[in-house]
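idk why but the lab printer keeps eating my pages so im just putting this in chat instead. protein + NAI:
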Amino acid sequence: MAKTFDVIVLGGGPAGYVCAIRAAQLGLSTAVIEREKLGGVCVNVGCIPSKALLHSAYVAKLVKHDAKTLGVNVGDVKLDLGAAVRHSRKASEQNSKGVEFLLKKHKVTIVNGDGKLQTARKVKVGKDTYSASKGVVIATGTRVKGLAQIGLEINKTTVISSDEALFLQQAPQSLAIIGAGAVGCEFTDIFNAFDSKVTLIEVLPRILPLEDHESSEAITRSFEKRKIQVLAGAKVKGAEVTEAMVTLDVEAGGKAQKIEVEKVLMAVGRALNTESIGLEDAGVTLTDQGFVAVDQNLKTAADGIYAIGDIAGPPMLAHKGSREGVFVAEVLAGQKPRPIRYDNVPSVTYCHPEVASIGLTEEQCKKQKLDYVVGKFPLSANGRARVALETEGFVKIIRDKRYGEILGAHIVASHASELIHELTVARENEYTVEEVDLAIHAHPTLSEAVAEAVLDSLGRVIHM
Ligand code: NAI
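predcted complex ->
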């Protein structure tokens, strides 16, 4: 096998494999080095299997609560997490195989093994050394982490991470989830639907703390309606872990309490895979936060070495990594790609209803002393949402008062993950709210709620 390529990509997740495909499209000979399954965390133990389980959770809620009203009597509902997990594994495997197929189709060489950077654009895998004439791209991603300092090291039985939660065959009777970012809120939704008694614990004053406060409040209300205990502004002071259960010492609202659960799921962020890949030997440096330091072309401190995806900095999202992959491939091919707009990366949490956003939150607008107007439209006033009994949520548009620029958009809705892209395209192309309104929105659709929120920001809402 040839050991010299134009481009070598270390890591076959959504950042790495997309980079390799784009490099190959541009005529560069390319290799991807991956030690596990192709597709990375996203495909194998992240985005894809979790969305499969969230879909099972959605169906469970639908048949338990809404089917009868919709004229479909299904009798006694029996939940089977094992079957849901089997479905999710199938989806992951299909996607991982799909990545392999795409790489082969583009004649990208796949090297299975642990890559270690050397000097002068070389990467060692076992006894073999591979060299890249144009560049090495590091895309090694992240892994789960616990909180060893308060006794919550992941033991894979009573203290678990998303890696284990995705394979459970039975829902625990009781589950505490620590951390209410995307991972925490998505697993809260899944295990609640599968009848676990869930307590969601977040140290910051509200769940989904990076989202607009109205989105956090809507999800808190929705979770509490489903009897999920939401403890925000809560500190886990310590934990007693046995083989059968965990007792957490939690301080919330000035009150100390003990929470006994069958399992604890850690969702407090992820650790960067920057160790043991030879960064230092190759002359690659890190930022104070531990990310790989890169310039505007995503080049590291070392000549010919680039970094993309989670290790290159926030937001740690698959789609941001993929875009960085395309960008670096084009740089390596001698092109001048348009700079990535990091302020226009959509964020989605796939609990039910979903939360999606783009741009600034209202709090950020206030902090930046921007002169803004908010337009809002509730899903309860949208025909398509009513027929589907999915009336929780809203569309919120924050526009610049003078010029109508869309500063931010926040959607809580059953299909928020799809609805957000109209506004992502609008912002990317600097369309004003007036220009979004000019486009006719089909009736009846959830997208009409976007159009109505836009109109509300202009003082011309029709259906409210
Ligand atoms: P995260 O950083 O988004 O959220 C972790 C949460 O845990 C934060 O709200 C934080 O304040 C809280 N926390 C930290 N220490 C705590 C403590 N001691 N007690 C209580 N709360 C504590 O990380 P998360 O949710 O684990 O996700 C990891 C990465 O994966 C993120 O970058 C996330 O955006 C990404 N991801 C994206 C998804 C999506 O786009 N739908 C789905 C899942 C993950």
